[in-house]
Design goal:
CATH class of the largest domain in chain A: Alpha Beta
Distance between the termini of chain A: 64 Å
CATH superfamily of the largest domain in chain A: Thiamin diphosphate (ThDP)-binding fold, Pyr/PP domains
Mean pLDDT of chain A: 96
Strand order of the largest sheet of chain A: 9-8-10-11-13-12
Oligomer: homodimer
Number of helices of chain A: 23
Structural class of chain A: alpha/beta
């Protein structure tokens, strides 16, 4: 089945193959992709489209002396198979050894852990600069495409590259797509270049001072070998603009490129996912419904996303329904946030959607453009919780400490369906604050809650004594569990608080707790450093109140098991009860 | 003297003037600029170059219904004079009422507080989007230039604008400069366009799908009126590329554009500053000397700056001396940081320099490209202290809470010359950590200090009892003062600690303090939320130790008096002594 692939322990084995064997290899690699992706899911379209180009790269260049940097690195699976990691694709028991992104811990052929977009050119420029300083001459190749080019950093990278005077190769994988359709004026230029086979004078790469070569047959091994041989050892920067087909080799993916950018485990015949999410309500559907209804009711409402409508599962037909009330800025969180500030300033009601891990790219725009100006932008972030995405480059656990310390920004941590819905309503219609809302990662639960938010106050859910539990957002249910365990273990009823506002300290309430409480416990599913709990510790610092903050460490966790991690950190209910025994 | 200018209470008064009067007005405005800038300093070159264009803008468009957004807004002084704020330029007692940046609190003609670069296009896109949603038709004009175009966000903005189908005008002020010389391939294209009077097919704006018009005479009122009349009420996005002379009207500034980008109070005849900084040592000269010597000694060392060599006063002749060991990425902090990560990965020794307020633009790149990969990049940040830049858009006080909570990043807060120099030495040569160093804002002082940093430990400077003071970075000297005051007031010697590592908690030392201390006091010149002190509060949260954190509030302070602010916050030594009396 994988006769040739299994002989590949590194690029040197690729170079030994005949053209026929390389073709067979490409078929085997697609089979291996199917094997992994049908069983555990992952990035589909980007990798199916890049098989031939990455074979050609390893055939022509000499990795790791020659150095490849893959943008986002979600299209590096073929490269990984060719650099001694085919087992992670063909042998089920080795799947989890392969991270799905480039990873220097896995292989000397990987130079960076990468998971955010538009960075490959500048990272590679750094490799090239160090090479020049050391007086070396290896090739440095930055791979970019699949929508990443519209990220400002990629364009800034082209600009910096335009001043280089040594070897630098930028491979632009033009598959006519981002995750969703591409957005922005530059993609018309790419189309011009494709239609003219690279001869159009309207050439964005040349306007940055870069040399340029076009290759139409990005899915043809011989063509790609020929073009790489042409540019290998070149003494100046050049863009290789190649045209590929995203999802090549699987008809459903070729037809519906957006749906097949990334896949869950699926049945190869039907294309249907083999995991069942049930039919019950979920927070993403709630968000979609809110958006569609709000847009219909209020013409000033607009959804803005940096190329991530999928973060809340907003499908093409829904986007079409939104018409001019939907803006995709391309992969530029900075543009999305800054534009939202302008919309709010001129009386519109902007809602920015993406994943928590990506919005930190707009840290400065949130601070300066939105919060200094105190413009009422609402940002709704998916995968904010610690049991969402667990790849080191996609963690949601830094969201709290990143954003709750920016003045004027109200960060809302809903604990149930009722809170989430009313927080959305309140946030989009009010004009006093910029707001960031964490989409809950828990299964939807229902509670009877207070739905006024103007006061920025915490809410007491259960008035008790001695111990007060401040249980934030997704950890509210753990707080409930802990409250019950305290009652069972110690025979008194503790106070349980839903802070709601991760960014604010309700000093009045904290003062009131002093009268009949000795211990305050905070629970949050973010890192403790710079997080919610530390604010509570500071408040009580010079007072007799004992405070214990439970949360995650300041660590780049990678592909962890959430339940195990909580236990390691001493955060299970029985573990906390033991600690309370010692404090009480 | 200011006969016409004094009649201008708003744009309606500009429109009444004849061409002759407009010319006289432009002369009066330059005189007014001289009046303010010779006395209190500010942005010189950008404003002297924009007088004519901004007169023409207000002559043709109808602000505030038509909306102008100025990039960085450091070139908006002429606009401010024409919108009822001429007193801030001609009457000394009104200088401080005018912020030097656009400011919605000052005038309905200003839409945003802006101070960071490359945001005008996206902010203005937001205004235009809200306009369209409301069914309105006003003109929206984004002004950009002076180097800001190389910022990724500006390029992403061009890309988003390329998809618009309604009125949008981008005025590109091409003065052939950034603060220093421009960098990047795109500036060659701008040169092509200037030389060809806009006819070159190598047109970066058109590659983003934008309509385009060139105007050579950016410093001529009639020409600019004509071009604005042509584009006013246009029904699609267009770039007006105008050529101006930076510093126009003052020969010294026309000749030496970099030095005259921004000025201190100066003598108009000689051009020399009228404030005296003394001849003693200072931290910027130390940094320059370190850079020049290190570069000579170590070919793998490279300085990378996002267009801010001036942040440490690195002059053109010094940059020339550094040759290929100096990289200016143009105004893109993202590119600079990400490139530095690549340099470090390939064995180089990168030092990134800029101001603290700007480096937060690369928050994501610091977290993902540098810290997840744990690449040994050194970042040296000027204006990190609370008595540096006090404009709301340029505050250094958020640096600590922004960066000390990122895993793997070591944030160093030196307290004296010896620490600063040895921290630089250690940081650049070690390969275990990414490091961010705060350049001290205090006058240089000398101390005998421990110069080993591998252990990431705090240092006890004075062993005492009962009260321990952790005095970070620039507040170390306040800690010394407080220690002395405690001895005088209470008759015992407290412990004084130089934490050195703002990002780390020295748990061993904190535990040792428990044996003979009751109170721990932390002092930091950053905001308390997410800052250094909160980590100490958390550590002692459930223990009997009383902790009091002193620092700034989570507030966007604007043009504050540092000494007054400290008093308001209860942070003077006598105020802290009073609080200790109550705790002890």
């Amino acid at each position: 089945m994988y006769d040739i692939l299994k002989t590949i322990s590194g690029p040197e084995d690729v170079k030994k193959l005949s053209m026929d064997q390389l073709h067979t290899l490409s078929n085997e690699m697609r089979e291996a992709l199917f094997n992994r992706l049908t069983k555990i899911g992952g990035h589909f379209g980007p990798n199916f489209g890049m098989v031939e180009a990455e074979i050609a790269m390893h055939y022509v260049f000499d990795s790791p002396n020659d150095k490849f940097v893959f943008d986002v690195s979600h299209q590096s699976y073929p490269h990984k198979m060719l650099t001694g990691r085919w087992q992670g694709y063909v042998e089920d028991e080795h799947f989890l050894e392969d991270s799905g992104y480039t990873n220097p811990n896995e292989s000397e052929h990987d130079f960076f852990n990468v998971g955010h977009t538009s960075t490959s050119i500048t990272l590679a420029l750094g490799l090239a600069k160090a090479r020049d300083l050391k007086g070396m001459y290896e090739n440095v190749v930055a791979v970019i495409g699949d929508g990443s080019l519209s990220g400002g950093q990629a364009l800034a990278g082209l600009n910096v590259a335009g001043e280089m005077h040594s070897n630098f190769i930028i491979l632009v994988n033009d598959n006519e797509m981002a995750i969703a359709e591409t957005h922005g004026g530059l993609y018309k230029s790419l189309q011009d270049l494709r239609i003219s086979k690279g001869t159009s004078p309207n050439n964005i790469f040349k306007t940055f001072g870069l040399d340029y070569i076009y290759e139409e047959n990005g899915n043809d091994i011989e063509s790609m070998i020929a073009v790489f041989e042409k540019v290998k050892d070149i003494d100046h920067p050049i863009v290789v603009h190649m045209h590929t087909q995203k999802g090549k080799g699987y008809e459903m993916a070729e037809q519906n490129k957006e749906a097949w950018h990334w896949c869950l485990p699926f049945d190869r015949k039907t294309g249907l996912p083999t995991v069942d999410f049930g039919q019950g309500e979920n927070y993403l559907t709630m968000t979609q419904n809110y958006i569609l209804e709000k847009a219909k009711a209020d013409p000033k409402f607009v959804v803005i996303t940096p190329a991530m409508p999928g973060s809340i599962g907003l499908m093409p037909e829904q986007r079409e329904q939104l018409k001019n009330q939907y803006v995709d800025t391309g992969i530029s969180e900075e543009a999305a946030v800054s534009m939202a500030s302008g919309v709010a300033r001129n009386g519109g009601k902007p809602l920015v959607i993406t994943n928590m891990t990506f919005i930190q790219r707009a840290y400065d725009q949130i601070s300066q453009d939105v919060c200094i100006n105190n413009n009422p932008v609402t940002m709704v972030m998916n995968f904010s919780s610690f049991d969402g995405l667990t790849d080191v480059t996609h963690l949601g656990i830094f969201g709290l400490s990143t954003f709750i310390n920016i003045p004027n920004l109200v960060v809302l941590a809903p604990t149930c369906v009722e809170e989430y819905k009313t927080m959305l309503d309140w946030s989009v219609d009010q004009t006093d604050h910029p707001v960031l809302i964490l989409i809950p990662g828990n299964e939807p639960v229902h509670r009877d809650v207070d739905t006024t938010y103007e006061d920025l106050k915490y809410r007491i859910e259960q008035q008790g004594e001695k111990v007060a539990i401040l249980a934030l957002g997704d950890f509210y249910q753990r707080g409930q569990e802990l409250a019950q365990a305290i009652e069972e273990n110690f025979g008194f009823q503790p106070t349980l608080i839903d802070p709601r506002f991760a960014s604010n300290v309700d000093e009045d309430m904290l003062k009131r707790l002093e009268t009949n409480h000795e211990i305050v416990i905070t629970l949050e599913d973010g890192v403790l450093d710079g997080g919610f709990g530390e604010k509570i510790s500071r408040f009580y610092g010079a007072k007799p109140m004992k405070v214990k903050n439970y949360g995650l460490q300041k660590v780049f966790y990678d592909r962890y098991d959430p339940a195990k991690l909580l236990e390691e950190l001493g955060m299970t209910t029985p573990q906390i009860i033991e600690e309370i025994k010692q404090m009480i």
